[in-house]
Amino acid sequence: MSINKTLVFGHINPDTDSIMSSLVMANLENQLGNEAKAVRLGNINKETEYVLNYLNMSAPELVSDVADGQNVILVDHNEKTQTAQNIENAVVKKVIDHHTMNFVAPYQLYYRAEPVGCTATVLYKMYKEYDVPITKNIALMMLSAIVSDTLLFKSPTTTQEDRPIAEKLAKIAEVDLTTYGTALLKAGTDLSDYTPAQVINIDSKLFEKGGKKFKIAQINTADIDGVFKDKVYFEAAINDEIKKENLDLYVFAATDILNSNSKIISLGNDSGIVEKAYGVTLDNNTALLENVVSRKKQMLPKILENLD
Amino acid sequence: MSINKTLVFGHINPDTDSIMSSLVMANLENQLGNEAKAVRLGNINKETEYVLNYLNMSAPELVSDVADGQNVILVDHNEKTQTAQNIENAVVKKVIDHHTMNFVAPYQLYYRAEPVGCTATVLYKMYKEYDVPITKNIALMMLSAIVSDTLLFKSPTTTQEDRPIAEKLAKIAEVDLTTYGTALLKAGTDLSDYTPAQVINIDSKLFEKGGKKFKIAQINTADIDGVFKDKVYFEAAINDEIKKENLDLYVFAATDILNSNSKIISLGNDSGIVEKAYGVTLDNNTALLENVVSRKKQMLPKILENLD
Fold this sequence. Notes:
2 copies of one chain form a homodimer. Chain A has helices at residues 16-31, 46-54, 119-130, 136-150, 162-173, 177-188, 196-199, 224-228, 231-245, 273-278, 295-306, and strands at 6-9, 36-40, 61-62, 71-75, 91-97, 101-105, 110-113, 204-209, 212-221, 249-256, 261-267, 286-289. The first copy, chain A, is an alpha/beta fold. The first copy, chain A, has 2 domains: 6-187, inorganic pyrophosphatase (n-terminal core); 196-306, Diaminopimelate Epimerase, Chain A, domain 1 (Roll), CATH 3.10.310. Chain A has a 6-stranded parallel beta sheet with strand order 3-2-1-4-5-7. In chain A, strands 8-9-10-11-12 form a 5-stranded mixed beta sheet, sandwiched between helices. In chain A, α1 packs parallel to α3, α3 runs antiparallel to α4 and α4 runs antiparallel to α5. The termini of chain A are far apart. The interface between A and B is medium-sized, with 24 and 24 residues. β6 (101-105) of chain A pairs antiparallel with β6 (101-105) of chain B, so a sheet runs across the interface.
């Protein structure tokens, strides 16, 4: 792949925000005269597939690493553990994000992160700042990302900026926000094509702190009991990963988008951390976390806090 | 000091950009309804004093550390080695910067950095984005920061964005850009009130890489021979610091703003690095670096590159 064209990508195990924000940011760059191309670092999930089908678009090209000297733009992530291989030999020109930060660059770059619910919320503001028109398709992409990241504004990660922007985008995209949003989230709960090993990797993120390595995986569902019928298969797949990647903890959360709870499987030497963190008792490796739907706000901080 | 009001500050050993951008950012926050106050982490230099006198303003309050839980906004820096003490227990709400990055935050925040010549260039764009009026005084503050950081557009750190913005600001501030800019830079070369130990600390920055600690100090001058009359006193002051702070290298650069060269004193166990980096031979600890005026672009990278 040419290193002249800037590659734009979100995190590994891309979610809807990572894919849509790559496409939306690449379009912004191209509109501003900077040649850029969206790519992806992993498989498209069912929710994202719904958006691509709706727009009759194909998915961005799949890549796993970047060439030495390649110009890249990171969206929806900044940490080394969540990005392309060989990133240390690429040149990060820009970062557009809304996550916690752990970022080092020995050169100046454009870095824009805001404490909002979705990368697309930041991108909407950048389109306005640079006075680049938001087409119907671009609006639907941004809208889909916001609906996905905020669980249609039910997640505590939602900020007061996300909803008004989503409402504006729904108008431009000519869709009813609730109808489209509900259909999108529902599409994301379809696990029928996945093996258990694939389900736990639909949206898993690796974190490291003080020598400890752990993963938190999350899926959305409208049928939590249906998901847990496959519990033993998930456990086997999780234990495989723990062994293969030397993890201290693996938390798999099935988030009930109807009732806003999460049922988890916690495995690994540090699996007990979730008991301390949430005041629950693991029953056969599982527990129900009431009112917990956000990995970023309600899972990651609690686990970091209770890690030795 | 109240932890409710957000404190805005630039780096230790503040230069004109650090002081002016603190004031300009605090004003932006206040205009947006967020209570904020500019403070400073060190003495005001002569150049900054010139701006404050011009505006008949007093310097921001001096602080050295921040309280636990204090909300802060960093301008013109992001690295731990260059900020207030106890920063790890404060809450960084925003960062506005134009430097290389080495930043970690276990929470979401507003981070905006651009690869431009001056923090004030970024702030100008933020005023525009938020549609906050730029008053005559605010314009002069931003302008002064840009003139200072770009050495009136002679430094290679100058980007194509800095000059057009400075020109707009000069109009709002009702000053002639070249006349005001030259007077400002000249004011910054007045060392008459300083002891040698103070001169080397007017604008020194500490860097660390792979266990090595080094400082690069810089002053501007229109009389390089006059400065070097005090060479032995500078050397004594530098050696004191090397000992006190366990430094591997101390580079003191007197930058000739008329001829765009820098004459340096290099001391410490790794003083020879500058010979490798610039193909020069140290003569009695000094060397002339032709066409070198920027610490950020022409000194720091060369030293990092040649550090073992």
